[in-house]
Design goal:
The protein has one domain (21-251). The protein has helices at residues 2-13, 23-47, 53-63, 67-71, 75-99, 101-111, 126-143, 147-165, 172-178, 185-189, 196-199, 209-213, 224-227, 243-248. The longest helix has 25 residues, at 23-47. The protein is globular and about 55 Å long. Helix 5 (75-99) packs across helix 6 and helix 5 (75-99) packs antiparallel against helix 7 (126-143). It has 273 residues and is an all-alpha fold. Residues 80-216 form the Fatty acid hydroxylase domain.
């Protein structure tokens, strides 16, 4: 929460985009969704200890389960490989949640937010949080990732998610250098564009290399960061700011097929950084 507080203050002091909607109503909804998601994770932990990623890693260490334990690589190498592969997993999971209609039902709750700021990083449907934890835990078990690597990855993932959702304006030179390796707010904000040619791009949370490697990178939005609209085309009312509407959205009857992205990966951005 310290990162959330710092980023919230930063976006107030150095906003990248003018705020169009009030904070109070949106934040109440987004924080409530986050608390419900945290409750799901705690419930999973209470039902079975191995369902929490760090606990899975500790169990794998005790039983020497997983690929890295069988390979018996040096600790530093297993640690580094685990961080890299877990980040690739999160990228691939995020891309799948955009491509598979059943998963998109859940993930569109996150994208329906009509503003993007630090609180948007907390706005994931509780079912998506639980499903993500299960996927991550299974990957940790199969990989045999060291518990310390899993813990550091979880801390970094949450901190970076808040950072790159923050409505803060970094100096262009700083952004350009940072995004050579890391996902910056300007890079991730494109992912929340109302234009499907843009919100099916830039899936990374930590490392920017995966989007470049797999051809899903877009450097800048077609209408610029001040002209782009945030949210989903189907939900431009005040509904996404309501808690119960947001929780019910995955079950609502609607066209839930994700729109197709453009053939030209760079069509959405006039220049690269």
């Amino acid at each position: 929460m310290a990162i959330f507080a710092i980023m919230s203050l930063a976006e107030t002091r150095w906003p990248r985009r003018p705020r169009r909607l009030g904070r109070s109503h949106r934040w109440a909804t987004n924080l409530s969704i986050m608390l419900l998601g945290a409750g799901v994770v705690r419930l999973l932990a209470a039902l079975s200890v191995p369902l929490v990623a760090v606990a899975v890693a500790l169990w794998a260490e005790r039983t020497q389960t997983g690929l890295l334990h069988w390979l018996a690589w040096p600790e530093w190498l297993a640690f580094t490989v685990s961080l890299i592969l877990l980040d690739l997993l999160i990228w691939a999971q995020h891309a799948a949640f955009h491509r598979v209609p059943l998963f998109w039902r859940l993930h569109r709750v996150h994208h329906a937010d009509r503003e993007i700021d630090a609180s948007t990083a907390l706005r994931f449907h509780p079912i998506e949080i639980g499903l993500s934890m299960l996927i991550k835990s299974a990957a940790v078990l199969l990989l045999g990732a060291p518990a310390l690597a899993v813990m550091m990855f979880e801390i970094g993932l949450n901190a970076m998610a808040i950072f790159n959702h923050t409505n803060v304006g970094l100096p262009e030179r700083v952004d350009r250098w940072l995004r050579r390796l890391l996902v910056t707010p300007d890079m991730h904000r494109i992912h929340h564009s109302i234009d499907p040619r843009e919100h099916h791009r830039n899936f990374g949370f930590n490392l920017s290399i995966w989007d470049r490697l797999f051809g899903s990178y877009v450097a800048s939005p077609r209408l610029g960061h001040l002209g782009m609209q945030i949210g989903l085309l189907q939900y431009l009312s005040d509904d996404p700011g309501r808690l119960w509407w947001s929780l019910w959205l995955p079950f609502a009857r609607a066209n839930i097929s994700p729109e197709s992205p453009p053939a030209n990966e760079h069509e959405a951005g006039p220049h690269e950084r």
